[in-house]
Every structure is written in C-alpha cells, then in structure tokens.
Amino acid sequence: MYEPRGNGVFSVHRLMIDAAHQNQGIGSWSMRLVMDTIVGLGGETIYLSFRPKNIVAKRLFEKFGFVFHEREPDGEVVYRFGPARDIET
Ligand SMILES: CC(C)(COP(=O)(O)OP(=O)(O)OC[C@H]1O[C@@H](n2cnc3c(N)ncnc32)[C@H](O)[C@@H]1OP(=O)(O)O)[C@@H](O)C(=O)NCCC(=O)NCCS
C-alpha cells in the first residue's frame, strides 16, 4: 500500500505477504514492482516504517537501498530510499 505525498515523495505504508507464502521471494518481487511503479510515477524519495525487531523487513528494505532515517515516538523506525525530503501533505 503506497501513497503519493507530493514533491516526489511517496510513502509505502505496509508491505504484507500472507504468512503461508512468505520466504518464497514474493516480498522481494513485490517490493521491486512497487518501487518501479513509484519511480514511474515520478517518485524520487520513498519512506516506510517497521518495528525495529522485524529483522526480515529490515534486511529486505536494506537490500533495496533503504537506509535508516529516524525513529518515531512509538518506537517504529523510519527508513528512506532516495534523498531526504519533507512531506508536503
Ligand atoms: C517482510 C515480508 C513482506 C517479506 O516477504 P517475503 O515474501 O517473506 O520476502 P522474501 O521471500 O522475498 O524474502 C526476503 C528476504 O528475507 C528472508 N526471509 C524471509 N522470511 C524469513 C524468515 N522467516 N526468516 C529468516 N529470513 C527470512 C529471505 O531469505 C530473503 O533473504 P535474501 O533477500 O537474503 O534472499 C513478510 O515477511 C511479511 O509480510 N511480514 C509481515 C508484515 C511485515 O512485517 N511487513 C514489513 C513492514 S511494513
């Protein structure tokens, strides 16, 4: 689930694969598709967040070039792909 935030910024709110079908490459394939779609729509920066204990998500997003951006008050970590930019909306 992704959302355009203006100024070339997109948020990916959740990437979720059914537990029965995880660890078969579907999450990686889906992330590649989402990122290609966002770039095709003019996206240059993508933000997403997850629980820091979620090592599978962390490794997956780092594999696609995401880096740590900041920690939210609720403890989730925000990761970023592309240059840091403010969200307009
Ligand atoms: C995170 C998630 C989307 C990954 O989807 P997936 O289809 O399992 O991902 P893939 O099969 O493409 O695997 C991605 C990598 O994680 C590894 N991995 C997947 N499941 C794993 C597990 N249970 N234990 C250890 N490693 C695992 C794979 O080996 C792969 O590593 P590699 O890139 O080095 O080969 C999926 O686990 C999920 O939906 N989790 C619940 C929701 C969630 O946490 N979403 C992320 C935050 S929004």
Can you summarize this structure?
It contains two helices and five strands.
Indicate the mean pLDDT. 96
Question: Helix/strand-derived class?
Answer: alpha+beta
Order of helices and strands: EEHEHEE
Q: Extract low-pLDDT stretches.
A: none
Can you summarize the main beta sheet?
5 strands, mixed
- CATH superfamily assignment? Gcn5-related N-acetyltransferase (GNAT)
- Chain oligomer state: single chain
Distance between the termini: 17 Å
**CATH fold annotation:** Aminopeptidase
DSSP summary, beta strand count: 5
How does the SSE layout of this entry go?
Blueprint: E1 2-6, E2 9-12, H1 26-40, E3 45-50, H2 55-63, E4 67-71, E5 77-81
Parallel strand pairs: 2-3
Antiparallel strand pairs: 1-2, 3-5, 4-5
This protein binds coenzyme A (COA).
